[in-house]
């Protein structure tokens, strides 16, 4: 057996200090965020930013991948007194795609000190159940502190001028507000009781827009170590959740390494592993194999499952005339099963049994958009919306079982058709959070689909989508590597933040303003350090002006010293300081008219 | 003197054939476009695309930078009988930033066979004047054929379902429609009579959305050869116009090399060169120096001038409290001049004299947004809109002189404030075309501002903006190199095309559909060749699957052979071909209800 050498990126981002803010209701909680220190000459305080990078960017933390992260939430879960430890399901060779007598070629994470938990019989141990019972959990307070960036409530709310299309974003997030939003299903806290390592986060329209990064191997590419590295790398740049979409070898083992080392919620698509267990033959899938896979993954700690229960038999003919058919892996797999058996989708027919499993571990549904459009031509068609109607129906069933739900969305959608997606989802899915893949606003640019989709993602985030699933430059072409992961994450941070700004989120513009002030005052390092990717910004600047002194220069190579508008702007201000008062007086003396005839000779 | 070695990229794009379509009214015109050939197995015709790359991508053309491009329009211009050749202004050392006795270190383009033209006294030789006189020029027919991609009028118009916010995009563009749009000022044809080399194009809301690439040196960076190469490189990837924003050495000589070799309109900002002539001291600018610079550049053939005549003295105090002041080079230069002299902007006071010059050469105005917002905080403020009101006033004056006008726009604008910009510009500027820089939808991502602005550009293009000025990854950080130019151009082609799709432009979706069919049928090379950047798409694919056989594979490394949704989708269709008929019958037999109880036992 080869021992995987795990190499992950650690250390703080430039000028950043990890900090932790305590709770009030729960004084022991320590909410992670970071502060970016600015140059003393600026006279400005550090800028706090939301931070998904976990202990990896904390110099005070000691990282040992083989031991995993601290089980942050263990005491909170146990204090609720509604779970029991048990022996768990035995790991089978086929869980890693091995034949019965085949040896694993990769090391497994050492679980000798871990036993899975599940809810005591008859209980639903979900954040939704607690919220409906009026309970504010430590997770909820953690989230409130996190979403506020640790700010104290301001005496006066800052002026807000966004357009949120009817959302209800508060000036200040209280734990009670978090509870309310979860109770009404408008937000979810993905937090499997078997994933105690996570720093809690919330997905909902009235909170900061979140992003997801997809990782995972395929039969053709990648390894366990690469996938763990991608997870750590993706959260360093801002991924709020990560989906492990592995379809190749060692699915179980890879996932365990990721879960034990991930401070963010992890999502999966269980049908992939189920398909691997039947050797890739969709027709051979059974409810029993799938059910067993759900329990296997829930015991490990997966926080949300993408489940394509809306790919219903009668809808499949609606895809017959599509340009790109069914582009969802899970959707196509289930469509094949349905047609092979001439039966209704077993995920649909066994949906309540799935709910019974998920409520015992607090796994959230991500109701899959198996019939999403994979081309501009197919956008907003009958197949897509028929499935959405079913997802709305299934949302009500899940809520009946106190299982948390979010709804997945498209896809490929031209700009003028995007809002209809949001409006329809709000109407039919009871305001459950929307979680879209882009959408891509044109098909013509493989190699640049992070951009074609970043446009649609920003827009649909503005309209109310709660989480945006990223797309990398490799979309349609191959498995993303770590460079692609970074570009995808930064692009989607842009889309999410642009949406927060447009919605008028009270915390959003602080960073833009701080960076713009740094830019205007030629505090180059502050500008870089406040940006989403300080190293790239600095590297680009240094390509033409590498000398250290250039960091003090009041210009860059775009315009040079004589033409820098910001430099000249400063001179205009200095010049006008004395002159402005006189000009104002002149202006008033001339009657304060905007249009003043030029009486002076040239 | 060093002889610049000019190296530019020539040769066709993959699978592309340059073609030329003749006119009807003017049978001698040969409208350039290209066709992308698809694999014979597809059974599909070649796909025609709009092509800005000029003769450089035509294997039949012989390229000699030292001789320039053929003077395509010379005979059309002469046939109008309203221009005269003359000796032109003498080139002075200061035109290239040289002292009187200093030698040029770069070679000049050989103009020994070229004499500048100008309109005969009392004439306006502009496309606007001709349009208003009811004349359809060869340029107008060229444009009609080009915008239609050479299609014959279809017997029935294709179904169109865009949202164009009140635009009037025709199913088929006639030369008469072009004339009408130009006559009412809603579109411009930038085409200086001294730039006969251009392949005519149109900028207007009711035509394809266009993009501009900025090139030009600075005092810190670049050379004549690099700038000529950037121009050729930018149009290869799709730039519809190019602005030479040089601010360093050899401004005149660089521009001449670019103009003589550019098949697309060239824009400049004359105040830059004027500032160079006074050694960089804004206070020393005079109307006489500026006027002389306008004539110098008009004689060379510049097709549009950015002129910041809206930066009025009373508006400057409105920028005092801005976060990023005045971010326009020209705007800051003029603001400094105004305050230094305590006088109104001489571009404003001499505006009609500027019109007299421009009408004699058919140089179009790009009325500059000198007071555009350079940060989210400054978006849509009083300074910005005061200037826009003045630009509206100046538009009417220019039209009085038969001078073509487009209006420049922002900048940095959060998404929810973008539409207001379009609405206001339409209201106050008489529907003159809008030409925006982005806008950037957040400030927090230097290094990625092609993306932050691509989002805003796609949206404002959808709302009616006629041309989008690109932004590269180097924005705010340094002068773009050729790699940045390409990324900027491709990003803005995405934005413009996404806008065309959303507006329901009849020609737009052809390419998306052809590419998506190629994708679905695993015609990998067709997918690459139809994309905006075939080489990058292929390179990304080949990173993980380089073998030639992989180009026939029904999967890529994203999912591998067992999980490719498109492959499985094809299997579903094959499987269903026989089954579908039966299913349809079953469906109908059961009353055709969407919700069918599952009566079959599991």
UniProtKB/TrEMBL annotation, chains A, B:
Cofactor note: Binds 1 [4Fe-4S] cluster per subunit. The cluster is coordinated with 3 cysteines and an exchangeable S-adenosyl-L-methionine.
List of residues binding [4Fe-4S] cluster: 556, 559, 564
UniProt keyword Cell wall biogenesis/degradation present: no
GO MF term set: 4 iron, 4 sulfur cluster binding; phosphomethylpyrimidine synthase activity; zinc ion binding
Aminoacyl-tRNA synthetase is among the record's keywords: no
Parts of the chain that traverse the membrane: none
Biological-process GO terms, alphabetical: thiamine biosynthetic process; thiamine diphosphate biosynthetic process
Catalysed reactions, as listed in the record: 5-amino-1-(5-phospho-beta-D-ribosyl)imidazole + S-adenosyl-L-methionine = 4-amino-2-methyl-5-(phosphooxymethyl)pyrimidine + CO + 5'-deoxyadenosine + formate + L-methionine + 3 H(+)
Pfam assignment, any one: ThiC_Rad_SAM
Residues that bind Zn(2+): 412, 476
Keyword annotations from UniProtKB, A to Z: 4Fe-4S, Iron, Iron-sulfur, Lyase, Metal-binding, S-adenosyl-L-methionine, Thiamine biosynthesis, Zinc
A GO-annotated cellular component: cytosol
Residues that, per the record, bind substrate: 214, 243, 272, 308, 328-330, 369-372, 408, 435
Obligatory cofactor(s): [4Fe-4S] cluster
Known pathway: Cofactor biosynthesis; thiamine diphosphate biosynthesis
Subunit organization: Homodimer.
The protein's role, per its UniProt record: Catalyzes the synthesis of the hydroxymethylpyrimidine phosphate (HMP-P) moiety of thiamine from aminoimidazole ribotide (AIR) in a radical S-adenosyl-L-methionine (SAM)-dependent reaction.
Membership in a protein family: Belongs to the ThiC family.
Protein name (record): Phosphomethylpyrimidine synthase
Organism: Oceanibaculum pacificum
